[in-house]
Structures
1.
Amino acid sequence: MRTPGIGSKTFLKCLEYCPPEQLFSTSRDTLLKLGLRRQSIDAIKNPDWSIVEQDLLWL
């Protein structure tokens, strides 16, 4: 997941809560309680799809 402010520690903490695909439907309040910053939450809720497409092509 290429998201500003989310490194390996924060990502692992999120994985303890739910699988990565569920983060997109998790409420903003819950994401804040998990320790995510507003910038990170905004990136999860409104991903830059052009970057996602580039990453998928790379895979």
2.
Amino acid sequence: MVRSLIRVFTLVRELLGIGASNLGISRPHFSKILNGRASITAEMDLKLSEALGQPPGLWIRMQVAYDLWQAEQKPRQHVERLNAVL
């Protein structure tokens, strides 16, 4: 999952020549995003959407999917299901 998200972002960058200056961010921060060491925020999603001519939400949905996948990989304590009282 991580590798595929990084590949998608890297491919977009290479095909469209998008860089840190296009997005108004620093090169180190752009590098962190490209290498999976920084998350896509709502603000970054809007910048990418505008730069790439896409509707907002695509990049942040991929980030949420990645975050959820990462959380599922970790062992976690069982939580009892609640019974609703109406």
3.
Amino acid sequence: MREAAIKSDRHELGDDISPRFKCEKIDPEKGTPASYIATYIGKNLDASAFHNNDPKTGKPYVDEESGKTMAETVENAIAWASLHRIRQFQFFGIPPRQVWRELRRLASQMERNPASPKHLDHDDIDAIMAAADVGCFATYIMKQGGVLIPRNQYLVRTAYETADEANDYGEFPQRIYGICAPSLGERYTICTHPDEWKLVKKETTPDNRTGEGFDLQGDPVAPWTRGNNCPR
């Protein structure tokens, strides 16, 4: 970690590398690792909660490290991350969340369909689906193989198919089909999106009224908007 932190522009640091890397032992009297991380996460959240004054002192919240208001430090941190396109505090090295969503969808579909089996015929895949269905992400991670492994080593992955119709640009994009377990063969490719949806214009209802027509004055009609301003 030290070498990676000081690799860029090493000559600018000289003998003092603390601006890039500083390692200290945890002091229990100051807090735990979780509280230390929470402090930095709190400095990079939306500053809307810090625009109000501290109810105890009646003054703005102040960052003890810099002496500036918390609202100002948060805005600076967000601007810095946006400028350098840094996605802060995002978990990495874990199994795909899309597979998690598709497994939960599959479990719900199996529960609603009386003719569907209650369990998958492969114990490992069924255990992963069960973990996702009950909402235990930790178990889902472990059943998938753990963290920091190549994506092609996860047992269950997202299955895709090519769309039947071209989009507005004449392309045939990839869309989600369901889940698959490539290491177990094509048999364990399961569709979770059996229906196809598309946006279509609402058809106009033909006016089948016949006979001589005439204008009606004063009859109630449906409002053009959600608010009817008629005073009567």
